[in-house]
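Project outcomes to date are best conveyed with an example. Our students and postdoctoral researchers have been running inverse folding experiments weekly, and each run begins with a structure described purely in C-alpha cells. The record below, which covers 170 residues, was selected by the lab manager from last quarter's runs and is presented without edits.
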C-alpha cells in the first residue's frame, strides 16, 4: 500500500482488536488474541500499539488480564487519526515523488495529477473508522473461520453452549 509497515499493521491490528473486543471501547483484549490467525508480527505490533496508547487511541492494562483496549468507541476513531499517530500530522502533504519542495507554486512533475488523488485519500481516511474496518472484517468468511479456529478454549465452550441453548429451545 502507500503507508509504512507500522501504519499498515496499526490499521490492521486495530481492526482485529475491534472485532475481537466486540466493538466495546474499554474491553481489554490480549495481544496474543489480536494476532491469532493473522500474519501480524506480535512484538512489532506491541510497539505500534504503545504508540497508539501515547496518541490516546488505545489504553493498555498490565499484568494478569492485561492487554489493549480502544480508548474511545470504534466509530470515533478514524483511519486518519491512526495514520497521523504513526506517521505524523503532515504525512499526506509530502511530495509523491519525494522532492523537498513541492506545492502549487513549485510543483513536481506529478503534483497536478496526484493532487485530486491525495484529496480523495484524505477524505477516505477522515470518514472511515475502526468500526467500519471491523464490520468489513467480520463480514469476510475467511476471517470468521480463522476466528473460530483461534478462539480461546473458554470462549469456544461458551459459544458452543450458547448455540446449543438456542437450538434446544426450538
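After processing, the design step wrote out the following sequence:
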Amino acid at each position: 500500500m502507500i503507508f509504512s509497515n507500522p501504519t499498515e499493521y496499526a490499521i490492521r491490528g486495530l481492526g482485529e482488536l475491534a472485532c475481537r473486543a466486540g466493538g466495546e471501547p474499554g474491553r481489554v483484549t490480549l495481544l496474543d488474541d489480536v494476532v491469532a490467525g493473522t500474519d501480524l508480527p506480535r512484538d512489532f505490533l506491541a510497539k505500534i500499539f504503545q504508540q497508539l496508547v501515547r496518541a490516546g487511541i488505545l489504553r493498555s492494562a498490565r499484568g494478569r488480564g492485561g492487554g489493549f483496549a480502544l480508548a474511545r468507541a470504534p466509530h470515533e476513531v478514524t483511519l486518519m487519526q491512526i495514520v497521523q499517530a504513526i506517521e505524523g500530522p503532515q504525512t499526506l502533504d509530502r511530495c509523491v515523488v519525494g522532492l523537498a519542495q513541492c506545492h502549487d507554486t513549485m510543483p513536481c512533475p506529478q503534483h497536478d495529477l496526484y493532487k485530486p488523488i491525495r484529496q480523495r485519500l484524505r477524505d477516505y481516511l477522515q470518514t472511515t473508522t475502526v468500526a467500519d474496518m471491523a464490520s468489513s472484517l467480520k463480514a469476510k468468511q475467511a476471517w470468521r473461520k480463522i476466528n473460530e479456529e483461534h478462539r480461546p478454549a473458554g470462549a469456544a465452550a461458551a459459544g458452543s453452549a450458547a448455540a446449543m441453548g438456542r437450538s434446544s429451545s426450538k
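The radius of gyration is 19 Å. The domain at 5-88+129-147 is CATH 1.10.10.10 (Arc Repressor Mutant, subunit A). The training component of this project remains on track.
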